[in-house]
Amino acid sequence: MNRSLIEKVPDFLTTVRIIGTVPVLLLLCLIGFSPTIHLVTSLLVVALALTDCVDGRWARHFGCVSDFGRHFDPLADKWLTALYVPIVSWGMIHFIPVTLLLVRDITITDLRARAAKQGKLIPAHLSGKIKTAISFPLLCLLIAFVPVEGSYFSAFHWLSPYLYWIGGLLLSIVSLWSGIDYYSKFRKGVG
């Protein structure tokens, strides 16, 4: 495979995640109209979440970490996280875990901007990776379990209350922990 093509894959995946969030938001507005729209929306969200798993690993494995990826990969994650907002309005998850997640993401973005002004870079921490490992699969499951008549996932709708409480609790804990972790390391000057 061409080396220059290999180096472009992570940035391409990050760009796909940013751009792909827009049609998913539009599809979320139409999700209740048809099981097919529900299925397509669910699969697109899974595909976008998977790009986050692949792009960073690819970049590190092939030694093609870029400035674009360092700056835009976290932004792409924030865009994907924004998909939680309609799910709150449907009552699929409580607003508190999602608020904690969004506040955590905004705070980390601010910390990264302040660190950049000081010529420092705040890399992803383990707590951030765990937050992502919980929040993106939970997002995929919540969208899949939106009650749509004739849905392909209707056999699993009974899991929704468990996702509401257990998923919400996990999301709250990991968002708080990760936010505190990043903030404390920023204050200590540790990247």
TrEMBL record:
It is found in: Membrane. Signal peptide: none annotated. Belongs to the CDP-alcohol phosphatidyltransferase class-I family. The lineage of its organism: Bacteria, Candidatus Buchananiibacteriota. The keyword Glycoprotein does not apply. InterPro entries: CDP-alcohol_PTase-I, CDP-OH_P_trans, CDP-OH_PTrfase_TM_dom, CDP_ALCOHOL_P_TRANSF_CS, Phosphatidylglycerol_P_synth. GO terms for cellular component: membrane. The chain crosses the membrane at residues 12-33, 83-103, 162-183. This is CDP-diacylglycerol--glycerol-3-phosphate 3-phosphatidyltransferase. GO terms for biological process: glycerophospholipid biosynthetic process.
